[in-house]
Amino acid sequence: MACKICIVLCRWLKCPQLDAQRFEDASKEWERNNTKDWDLYASDSDDVRAMNGRAAKIAKVDPSAALAVYKQAAAAGSAWSMMQVGHRYELGRGTSQDLVQAELCYRRAAEAGLPSAILLLAGLLFRTRTSDEWMDLLEAAARSDVILANYYLATYCYERNPSARTARKVRPLLEAASDAGYPRAKLLLSRWRATGKLGFGEMRAGYRDYLSIQEEFGPKTN
Length: 222
What we know:
Layout: H1 2-13, H2 20-34, H3 38-43, H4 46-58, H5 63-75, H6 79-91, H7 99-111, H8 115-128, H9 133-143, H10 147-160, H11 164-179, H12 183-194, H13 203-216
Helix pairs in contact: 4-5, 5-6, 6-7, 6-8, 7-8, 8-9, 9-10, 10-11, 11-12, 12-13
C-alpha cells in the first residue's frame, strides 16, 4: 500500500504547480542575502566597485568587454571580481570555455575567503569529478556557517548515491538549509518526506509541507 502511494506521489510531484519564476527569484534573493559575500565586496575600493558595476551593466550586450573589466578589477585585488572571471571561464561567456582557468580563479577567490567562490569551486570539482575535494570544501564552509553549503553537500551526496539511505544520512544538512528559509531546501525536503525517502511515517507531513510551499510560491491571483 505504502509503495503504491509513493509511486503516485512521485508522479504528481514531478509537475509541481509552482510559479517557477517566483520560486527562482525567491531562491536567488535568499542566496544573495545569506552567502556572506558582502564584507569582502564592500572592502574593495570605490574604483574597483565602480569597475564591477560597469562590467555588470555591459555583461549581456558585450560579454567580452565585461570579462576584460572584471579581469582588471581582479588584478586590483578583488576576490569578488576574480570569482566573476572564473564563472565566465566556466560557462564560456565572453571567452572560450576553460575549466582549468575557472578552477584557478575560483581557488584564488576562495582562498581570499569568498563564500560563493568556495561553493562554485566545490560545484566545479563535483561536476568534473577530478577529486573528492568538493566534500572537504563544503564541510568546512558549513562549519563556518555558510548555510548554503549544507544544501549543496546534501544534494551532491545524494546525486552521487541516490538512495533512501543517503537521503536519511544527509537529512540534517538539508534541514539546516530548510530551517534557515532556503526555498530550494524546503521544497526538496518536502518531496523527500512526501515520497517516503525519509520513512513512510513522514509521507503525510511531507505532503502537507509541499502543499504549503505550493501555496506560498503558486501563481499570483488577481
